[in-house]
Amino acid sequence: QAKAAGGGCVRVVDRATGPAHGETLRTVERLRAAVLAPGPQDHLEVHYQPTVDVESGVVSGVEALVRWRRDGELVPPEEFVPLAERHGLVADLGLVVLDRAVADVAALREAAGRDVVLAVNVSAPQLHDPRFLPAVRRAVAAATPNRLVLEVTETVLVAEDVLTAATLDAAVAAGAHLTVDDFGTGYATLAYLRRRPFSAFKVDRSYVRDLETDARTRALVEGLVLLAGSMGLGLVVEGVETAGQADLLRCMGAPTQQGFLHARPAPPGELAATIRDLHERLAPARQAAERAV
Ligand code: C2E
Ligand code: MG
Ligand code: MG
Ligand code: MG
Hints:
Bound molecules: ligand C2E, magnesium ion
Order of helices and strands: EEEHEEEHHEHEHHEHEHHEHEHH
Number of helices: 12
């Protein structure tokens, strides 16, 4: 958001914190360079965190998670994605992530003979970018026979506008699947589940944290499992950190999980090995599932 400050000056105003000080401006410029003109010390990286089904013992997919390599250090997305959103960079960032992720998953298929569902996170401004849908169509074509999933948070959905709704519909028509990310942290979620063509929701990790200690949280998650089942939607639980949580969730009917217990996000070079290890660790579940049929 730029605002005329008189005398031909333009002052950059940060919506959340007021006038930006020098540090923020410099950070924005460095981020712009990392997105649009990447160099060896300053660029975007995409890491991948697997999703597993602890009931059938399979690795079901991977989620692309962006990082900013700045001066060789890895900056987490929470520190720069909001900045990119406010300064008109997130559409470009999203395109970089989508194209990179498609290429990395294709490489995984070539090198390791593994095919996984690819999930990418989508910010609100991307849904207004004319390059978004063509990129989604390319990604869907490249991801075939597997799926491309777009993870959209409730905040995107709450700020409903006609263009956002039309883009989401068009993405689904193009073959992408939609997931509500961080489910349960925003509001108006249930209304959106009624209208938008979502195929799954991802229960926020704040619900998992209290699962073993709080009966109300447990009851809520049980309710969500029932809701997903009766609506024919998939349910993924994020932030699973302990074996106790994983087991409890499995018993509650929520076997599709993501979290540090199963696997941490890995750079592309370590993804094949990460999935191989995970697959091995899931062998007992796989054998039990085979015995059960
Ligand atoms: P998210 O989409 O909900 O992704 C899950 C976040 O939780 C990731 O953090 C992941 O590393 C972390 N996580 C996974 N398992 C666990 C666990 O067991 N315990 C804990 N404490 N954390 C866990 P990360 O990679 O820092 O990403 C944070 C958020 O940044 C993402 O939340 C997403 O909203 C956003 N983001 C990441 N990549 C992108 C992107 O390419 N584009 C956009 N627009 N947003 C992105
Ligand atoms: Mg996500
Ligand atoms: Mg999430
Ligand atoms: Mg989150």
